[in-house]
Write a structure and sequence with these properties.
By secondary structure, the protein is of the alpha/beta class. The chain has 2 domains: about 290 residues, 3-Layer(aba) Sandwich (Rossmann fold); about 140 residues, no CATH class. It contains 15 helices and 9 strands. A 9-stranded mixed β-sheet has the order 1-2-3-5-4-6-7-8-9, with helices on both faces. Strand 8, helix 12 and strand 9 form a beta-alpha-beta unit. Helix 6 crosses helix 9, helix 7 packs across helix 9 and helix 13 packs across helix 14. The N terminus is likely disordered.
Amino acid sequence: MHRVTQHLRPEPEDPMRRAALALCLAIAGLPALAASPAPCPTGLPEGVTCHRAQDANGAHVLIARPAQAHGGLVVHTYGGPRLAPIRPDTTDEDIRRFSEFLAEGWSWVSTSRRRPGFGVAMGAEDTENARRLYVEAFGQPRVTIAHGQSWGANVTAALIERHNAPGPDGRRPYDAALLTSGVLAGGTRAYDMRVDLRAAFQAICGTHPRPEEAQYTLTLGLPPGASMTRAEVLSRLTDCTGIGAPTRTEAQARAAADLVAATGIPEAAMPGHFAWATFTFRDIAQNLTGGRNAFGNAGVRYRGTSDDEGLNARITRITPDPEAAALLAADADLTGRFDIPVLTLHGIRDAVAYVEHQSAFAATVEAAGNSARLVQVFVNEAAHSKMSSPLYPAALAALAEWAGGGARPDAAAVQARCEALSARFTGPCRIDPEFRPAPWDSRVNPR
């Protein structure tokens, strides 16, 4: 069996060192993390111990260490961006979801981030602060791998571009990065399908906003001061298209089909994208661009509907504010310039973060002359939040060996590790070594 524990020996606990570190942290005014164990989230492997803290910005940090820790650390960044208020247990669901890492001997640290919502640069800073808290409490890990899931992959990619310079000892904070189901096309184009969704919905249905309501640039999400729940937003989608209803009229079916054709968003995924195109867009406008619009659809030609000419004549054309677009690019676009091995894992039929994100990311990395540091693995699954369980420790182990000077892995190597782990972790290993994603503009209407 290929396991990272073949290369990393168990790391013994040192109670005296932990007590001394706790005292130093307390004197420095930092969270006395090592002295403050906390109950672990339910559902973790037996023997895991946990600690919690808040960093200087108020972000809640969760640390977990397995009984047989081998010296490796996973620095996890969650997706979303989640809009619910941050809490001490914000990342509890994440550690449960990826508990395979703990079962394989990896320690874990994650952050709630200092506030909810969008902010790639902020998220990267908060993630790095969480890693530093771990190091201050438990010492430098033998290997540190950054793991970003979904939108968290955008944050993690920015993290390794912006916060991974060598220290005085010549060592970088992060040795490698694992990006799973990643939103990696960059902030200025990753949401183009949702721009098209808001514009096409208004041309087809005209009810978000309704004619009697305050009118606003659709890509601001909602007008200032507006208060709507997710259920209220989705009811407008259902009323017009029948999506989510047990039955639908002929007119609703036609509206749904036209919306799918105009946006490329599968009908089953439409409610999620419609909500994000409301609330995440509002969050970006309120917290990043100063109330200005960063998105546009000028020049987009919508095709495949029941009346392309009519739709294109009616559809609202939105032009981004240059300063807002520049702010979004500075926050969330990627350069492809990193200095460590990166492995991506993505479901081929993912309808939340399209697999074409990977072709966009690969092109960015290639333009930076960095393709040798990137391996992309594709899985014949539709899941977004979590694919088959053994895939994750298999990918992590292959990446750790590569970062340690081993061979650059390919899809077949990850498949072999996955199959070896399938006796311990339930689920198939449906890696497709021949798959290559189509270009981004083949899936999302080009701007």
